[in-house]
Every structure is written in structure tokens, then in C-alpha cells.
């Protein structure tokens, strides 16, 4: 105990109940992080450009905008407009279905895994263990289990359900842990049930972020389907896999994606303006809350009805889908029997590839974080003229509509696979972080911004003194989750970039060598476990 106390005294200084790290150690940590960033940047060949291939990039972009509507080799006498519509309609159906039920499940699991909402610690630990256990499993484990056991759109729906459930559970748990529970317990002590108090005092208070997370997960899942074709999942990912070396046939597919994601952005904007903005009504807060609560009920009803209408056709098809639980348990048993025979070869060593993924994800996170914090300054209408905010939001919306796999194909023309993949991951992380940071800024009361304007403070000063301290807790949570998400993306994107553990998964899965897949995934699984433990420790100390 004395040893730990001495360590704390060495690292921290105390001022009453406050504890801060000493300046020497703070700057030393910064120096180490910067040095590691530079090392990783050089090691990953981020800036190695093949200038001879820049002409190919120009030709590829030119061919892309030709909008080829026929591919006689793969789809005889069929327009690519119709082919894309068939794949898109199917994709939308299973994505909406899986996303909706994953969203509902995530709310309940986040509620039952939030410590401050319950006194029965054993039940909390059980739910937390289940969620953490499922979260730390690499995505390829679940894809292998599902693809070997459930066919067609049923398997695709389950994969989207799993993505949404596990992804949103973490974000919602962080959100709930940063929400005051005073009113929650007051209502319970007055005789109301936990679920009713949870809905009234937690869900309604956080409704903007919760609804936003629903649509962001829906948008994220739609973009995920563009790369799922690399691992054999049906949907628009099949077209990206088919035309990975023929980008001129992807223009129609990109246009469909553009329209779909643009529609989601418009829906989020409408909901934000109609449902969540404080109305300038001359009325009391109780009446205003009742109005907004009724609006929320309408929104939830609309979401449910739209989900049923879109998914009804695909639910009927579930009856014809093959389900093989024998294969499920057989695959699971094979995962529990890892084969390390290839570990003596560096190109098949899961530990070495995990270290490379860490380096790649770290560089991508630093680049995306810097760009996101800078870009988000211009997104908020509370800090800028609405025209400036609108322009930057439009550009961000356009960037969000570009599928990551398409960005990789373009970059890979003049960058090697590692560099192209790294910049694609940084680009993907930037889009997500910027959106979350922007929403956190918008949650700040406008009166604080007005105060700084009256004091004639510039944007940089306002951002430093008001915005960053206000969003600090949310930002730390976003950084933690984004680093893990980038590691997971790096793992998965390797399946279509020909690099890393994802590439090894494709090689071994073609040979049906589940035991070797298990072996290469063990180091990165341990890494995900460490992420969870570190995240839990930081959350506990931040409260």
C-alpha cells in the first residue's frame, strides 16, 4: 500500500479532493507519444507516393464519371441501374431490421450494465461480462460462426444485429454513466419502477444523442455492407468486390449510396430541428417537456412502422433460409482448438500483425483527432455564421457518403496497400469523430457562446476555454472507443486490402482452416480485453 502511495505521490499532486498529474510527467508522456507517432508514421510509409500512377488516378476518375450502365460480361442484357437497385433494396431491408433490433437490445444491455442504476452488483457484473466477452471477440469469429450456420439474408441480418448491439452498447453505457442519476433514484423512491424512471429521467434527457446514435449506426451499417462482400456476405458489398479493379462500373453504386446517406442526413437534420431544439415558447418547462415527449413517442412509432414495412419482405424469406446449428457448434469447437503451427513464419504470426495494427491505428487516430478538432470549429452555428456552418456540414456530409472501400481503391492507385489503407482508416475515423464532436458542441447552451461574443473573444479562445472543457468527458470516451474501432477496422479492412490479419483470415477461410484462424486472432483478442480493462479503469477514475 505504501509503495502505491509513493508512486501516486511521484506522479500526481493533490489539491484537496482534486488530483492532477505533475507537469514533468505530463510533458514526458507527450514527448513519448509524439516520438512514437513519428516512428509509426515512417514505418507505415504514409507519404510514399508513386508519381507515375497519378495519371492512372486521373483516368480512373474520368472513367468513373462516364456512368457505364451495362456490363455484358457479368450481367447480360441487364442494366446496372436495375442490378444496383436489386442489391440495394435487399441491403436496406436486412440493415434496417438488424439495426433496429440491435438498437433496442443495446438500450437494455446498457441500462443493466450501468452501475449507478442498480444496487444488485452481481446482475450488473453478469451483463457486463456478456457484453465485454462479445465485444472482445474479433469480428471474424462471429462472421465465421454465422456464415457457416445461417444462409442468405438471415445471416446478414444477424451480423448487422451483432454489429449494432455491441457497438451501441458501449456508446450508450458511456452516455448513461456521464448522466446524473439524482432524479432517477428520486422517482424510484417515490414508488415508480426502474424502467419507468429510466425512460423519464435518462432516455428523455438524452434523446438527441440516442436518436442520433440510432441513425449513425444505421448509416455506419450501410457503409459496412460495402466491405462485407469481401467475406461473402450478400448485398451491395458484392458489387464492390466484383468491380474492385473496374471502378468505372461503380458510379451507379456510389450514386445510390450518396442518395441514401444524404437522405439519412436530411432525416437527422429534421429530427434535430423539430424534436430536439429548444423552442422559444412563452411557456413553462413542464409544458415544453410534455410537447417534446409526445414528439419522441411519434418518432419511435414512425421508426417501428418504417422498420416493419421495409423488413416485412425479408422476414418472409427467413422461412426459406437454411439454419444449421450443428455447423455453428462445430465451428465454435474448432475455434477453441487453435493451431499455432504457422507462427514460426513472420508473415503468419498473429502477434506481429497485432503490433502492426496498433501502430497503424495510433497514427490514424492522431491524424483524425487533429483534423476533427480543427474542422468541428466551423461546423457549429453557435460559433459561426449559418452559411459557413452549412458549407462545412455539406462537405462533411459528402465525405461521409463516400464508401471507405472506394476511397481505398482510389488511394491504392498511387499509394501502396498499407499507405492507402492507413489513410482510408484515418479518413473513416475523421468522419465519425467530427460528427460526434460537432454534436457535443451543439449540446452547449447558446447563452455561453453569447457571453464570449459580448466579451469579444475570438473562436480559438472560445474553443479553448469553453468548448474543450465542456466536451472533455465526451471527447475522452470518443477517443477511447475510436481507437478500438480503428483497430477493429484495420483488422477487417485487411480482408479486401490484402494486408494484415484480415488477409490471413481470407487465406485460411478458403482452406476452411478455422483452427489457424483462431490462432492468429488470439493476440488481438487479448488486446481488445486490455482495451476494455483500461476503459473501465479510466471511466471509474473520471467519475
TrEMBL record:
The chain crosses the membrane at residues 27-50, 91-111, 123-143, 149-168, 222-243, 249-275, 296-315, 357-378, 520-538. It is found in: Cell membrane. Residues 88-268, 354-535 form the ABC transmembrane type-1 domain. It is a multi-pass membrane protein. Pfam families: BPD_transp_1. One of its GO terms (biological process) is transmembrane transport. The keyword Oxidoreductase does not apply. Keywords: Cell membrane, Membrane, Transmembrane, Transmembrane helix, Transport. InterPro entries: MetI-like, MetI-like_sf. It comes from the Bacteria. PANTHER family: ABC TRANSPORT SYSTEM PERMEASE PROTEIN P69, PHOSPHONATES TRANSPORT SYSTEM PERMEASE PROTEIN. Belongs to the binding-protein-dependent transport system permease family. This is ABC transport system permease protein p69. It comes from Mycoplasmopsis anatis 1340.
Amino acid at each position: 500500500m505504501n509503495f502505491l502511495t509513493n508512486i501516486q505521490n511521484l506522479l500526481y499532486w493533490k489539491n484537496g479532493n482534486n488530483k492532477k498529474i505533475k507537469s514533468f510527467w505530463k510533458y514526458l508522456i507527450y514527448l513519448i507519444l509524439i516520438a512514437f507517432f513519428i516512428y509509426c508514421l515512417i514505418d507505415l510509409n504514409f507519404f510514399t507516393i508513386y508519381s507515375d500512377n497519378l495519371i492512372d488516378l486521373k483516368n480512373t476518375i474520368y472513367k468513373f464519371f462516364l456512368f457505364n450502365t451495362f456490363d455484358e460480361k457479368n450481367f447480360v442484357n441487364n442494366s446496372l441501374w436495375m442490378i444496383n437497385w436489386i442489391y440495394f433494396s435487399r441491403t436496406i431491408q436486412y440493415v434496417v431490421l438488424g439495426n433496429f433490433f440491435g438498437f433496442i437490445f443495446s438500450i437494455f444491455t446498457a441500462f443493466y450494465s450501468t452501475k449507478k442504476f442498480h444496487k444488485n452488483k452481481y446482475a450488473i457484473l453478469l451483463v457486463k461480462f456478456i457484453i465485454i466477452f462479445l465485444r472482445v471477440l474479433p469480428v471474424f469469429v462471429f462472421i465465421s460462426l454465422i456464415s457457416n450456420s445461417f444462409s442468405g439474408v438471415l445471416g446478414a441480418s444477424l451480423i448487422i444485429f451483432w454489429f449494432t448491439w455491441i457497438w451501441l452498447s458501449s456508446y450508450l453505457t458511456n452516455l448513461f454513466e456521464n448522466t446524473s442519476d439524482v432524479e432517477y433514484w428520486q422517482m424510484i423512491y417515490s414508488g415508480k419502477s426502474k424502467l419507468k424512471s429510466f425512460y423519464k429521467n435518462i432516455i428523455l434527457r438524452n434523446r438527441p444523442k440516442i436518436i442520433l446514435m440510432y441513425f449513425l449506426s444505421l448509416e455506419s451499417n450501410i457503409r459496412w455492407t460495402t466491405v462485407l462482400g469481401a467475406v461473402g456476405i450478400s448485398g451491395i458489398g458484392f458489387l464492390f468486390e466484383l468491380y474492385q479493379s473496374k471502378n468505372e462500373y461503380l458510379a451507379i453504386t456510389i450514386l445510390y449510396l450518396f442518395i441514401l446517406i444524404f437522405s439519412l442526413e436530411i432525416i437527422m437534420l429534421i429530427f434535430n430541428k423539430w424534436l430536439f431544439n429548444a423552442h422559444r415558447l412563452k411557456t413553462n418547462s413542464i409544458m415544453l417537456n410534455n410537447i417534446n415527449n409526445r414528439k419522441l413517442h411519434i418518432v419511435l412509432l414512425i421508426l417501428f412502422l418504417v422498420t416493419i414495412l421495409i423488413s416485412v419482405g425479408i422476414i418472409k424469406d427467413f422461412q426459406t433460409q437454411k439454419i444449421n446449428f450443428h455447423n455453428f457448434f462445430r465451428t465454435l469447437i474448432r475455434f477453441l482448438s487453435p493451431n499455432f503451427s504457422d507462427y514460426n513464419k513472420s508473415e503468419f504470426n498473429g502477434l506481429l500483425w497485432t503490433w502492426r495494427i496498433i501502430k497503424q491505428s495510433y497514427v490514424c487516430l492522431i491524424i483524425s483527432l487533429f483534423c476533427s478538432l480543427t474542422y468541428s470549429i466551423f461546423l457549429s452555428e453557435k460559433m459561426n455564421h449559418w452559411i459557413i456552418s452549412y458549407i462545412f456540414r455539406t462537405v462533411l456530409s459528402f465525405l461521409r457518403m463516400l464508401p471507405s472501400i472506394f476511397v481505398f481503391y482510389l488511394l491504392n492507385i498511387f499509394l501502396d496497400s498499407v499507405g492507402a489503407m492507413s489513410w482510408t482508416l484515418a479518413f473513416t475515423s475523421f468522419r465519425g469523430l467530427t460528427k460526434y464532436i460537432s454534436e457535443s458542441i451543439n449540446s452547449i447552451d447558446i447563452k455561453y457562446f453569447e457571453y464570449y461574443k459580448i466579451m469579444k473573444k475570438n473562436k480559438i479562445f472560445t474553443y479553448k476555454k469553453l468548448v474543450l472543457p465542456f466536451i472533455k468527458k465526451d471527447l475522452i470516451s470518443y477517443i477511447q472507443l475510436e481507437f478500438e474501432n480503428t483497430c477493429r477496422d484495420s483488422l477487417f479492412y485487411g480482408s479486401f486490402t490484402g494486408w494484415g490479419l484480415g488477409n490471413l483470415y481470407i487465406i485460411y477461410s478458403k482452406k476452411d482452416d478455422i483452427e489457424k484462424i483462431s490462432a492468429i486472432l488470439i493476440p488481438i483478442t487479448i488486446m481488445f480485453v486490455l482495451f476494455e480493462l483500461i476503459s473501465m479503469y479510466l471511466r471509474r477514475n473520471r467519475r
